[in-house]
Design a protein that fits this description.
Blueprint lengths: L2 E2 L2 H21 L5 E7 L3 H17 L2 E7 L5 H13 L5 E4 L9 H7 L11 H8 L8 H12 L8 E5 L6 H10 L3 E5 L6 H5 L4 E4 L17 E4 L3 E2 L5 E2 L4 H4 L5 E2 L6 H18 L1
Bound molecules: NADPH dihydro-nicotinamide-adenine-dinucleotide phosphate, 5,10-Methenyltetrahydrofolate and magnesium ion.
Pathway: One-carbon metabolism; tetrahydrofolate interconversion
Family: Belongs to the tetrahydrofolate dehydrogenase/cyclohydrolase family.
InterPro entries: Aminoacid_DH-like_N_sf (IPR046346), NAD(P)-bd_dom_sf (IPR036291), THF_DH/CycHdrlase (IPR000672), THF_DH/CycHdrlase_cat_dom (IPR020630), THF_DH/CycHdrlase_CS (IPR020867), THF_DH/CycHdrlase_NAD-bd_dom (IPR020631)
Length: 279
């Protein structure tokens, strides 16, 4: 039976520390501010935004959510970002991805001032991460590293396999594991014999976006299994990329969905926002 990595509990502890810190900052007249720009009405995005708002409120972060119709032009969105770049009450800007097709997401991410880029997606921050001098770090892989640390899982010398190579999860995840001296393999949809590659892993991070894709055939006994996936099954229930019930008896550690990576992503977003206001 695997040990459960309780992301929700750990995120709660981080949130409690941030709450204390923000109350001290407020005594000095500093109020951290975060703006979230949500373009269109993707229902999956709605839950994420709602959870971020709850967390920001708890911590005492001034939280602004702009719900913007999908019909906004790219130029109008860029102008909004520029206004928040100039706004001294705002320490973090997050543009929820994905964006509607008529808007160039790369251009939008480039428009966010790197100092306010609490998602860590700006090419400057990505570049800093990949040369080994990170400042802002993408929240999901950052949260995963915090979970490994909290459970005293040392990546050094271990074989880590990352499934999925997105800019927001897979790629920065591989880099963070590499920085902790893991031997990292990145895999994707063209990888041949993925189960055999995954079975080599001491630490397996799964970020594909396909419900229950990873079965016990992918998992070495005792491995650490981190499930980033957020999918809905046919009944609308939230499920991960890992078939939890069959992998859990094989793994050494495993994250649940919900209650694993998701809450840590939000906690890291809050942490990077507060850190920015502190500066
Ligand atoms: N918990 C959290 O905080 C977060 C959760 N998520 C969730 O994580 C999942 C992944 O998100 P994201 O990284 O944005 O996804 P993307 O869709 O951007 O990337 C998916 C990756 O998975 C790979 N892939 C797809 N199918 C297969 C397959 N059959 N075998 C091997 N690899 C495959 C793709 O390969 P290729 O490049 O070859 O196409 C791609 O690299 C989603 O469920 C998302 O909702 C995302 C962000 C945060
Ligand atoms: N610019 C940008 N930054 C992101 O970080 C980003 C993004 N866009 N687009 C979408 C993905 C997805 N994502 C989630 C984070 C937390 C939960 C989350 O809170 N999950 C909880 C609850 C889920 C529930 O109950 O519905 C859990 O797993 O326990 C979900 C999804 C961040 N992303
Ligand atoms: Mg993130």
């Amino acid at each position: 039976m695997a040990k459960l990595i309780d992301g929700k509990k750990l995120a709660g502890e981080i949130t409690a520390q941030l709450t204390e810190e923000v109350s001290r900052m407020k005594e000095k007249g500093i109020v951290p501010g975060l703006v979230v720009l949500l373009v269109g009405d993707n229902p999956a995005s709605q839950t994420y935004v709602k959870n971020k708002e709850i967390s920001a409120k708890k911590i005492g972060i001034h939280s602004v959510v702009e719900r913007i119709p999908a019909s906004i032009t790219e130029a109008e969105l860029l102008a909004k970002i520029e206004a928040y770049n100039q706004d001294e009450t705002i320490h973090g800007i997050l543009v929820q991805l994905p964006l509607p097709k008529h808007i160039d997401a790369d251009k939008v991410l480039l428009a966010i001032h790197p100092k306010k880029d609490v998602d860590g997606f700006h090419p400057y921050n990505m570049g800093q991460l990949f040369i080994g001098s990170p400042d802002k770090i993408p929240c999901t892989p950052y949260g995963i590293m915090k979970m490994l640390e909290a459970y005293q899982i040392e990546p050094e010398g271990k074989k880590a396999v990352v499934i999925g190579r997105s800019n927001i999860v897979g790629k920065p995840m591989a880099q963070l594991l590499l920085m902790q001296n893991a031997t990292v393999t990145m895999t994707h949809s063209r990888t041949q014999d993925l189960p055999a590659v995954a079975r080599e892993a001491d630490i397996l991070v799964v970020a594909i976006g396909r419900g229950n894709f990873v079965t016990k055939e992918f998992v070495k006994p005792g491995a650490v299994v981190i499930d980033v996936g957020m999918n809905r099954d046919e009944n609308g229930k939230l499920i991960g990329d890992v078939k939890f019930d069959e992998v859990e008896p094989v793994a050494g550690f495993i994250t649940p969905v919900p209650g694993g990576v998701g809450p840590m992503t939000i906690a890291m977003l809050m942490e990077q926002t507060v850190a920015n206001a502190r500066k």
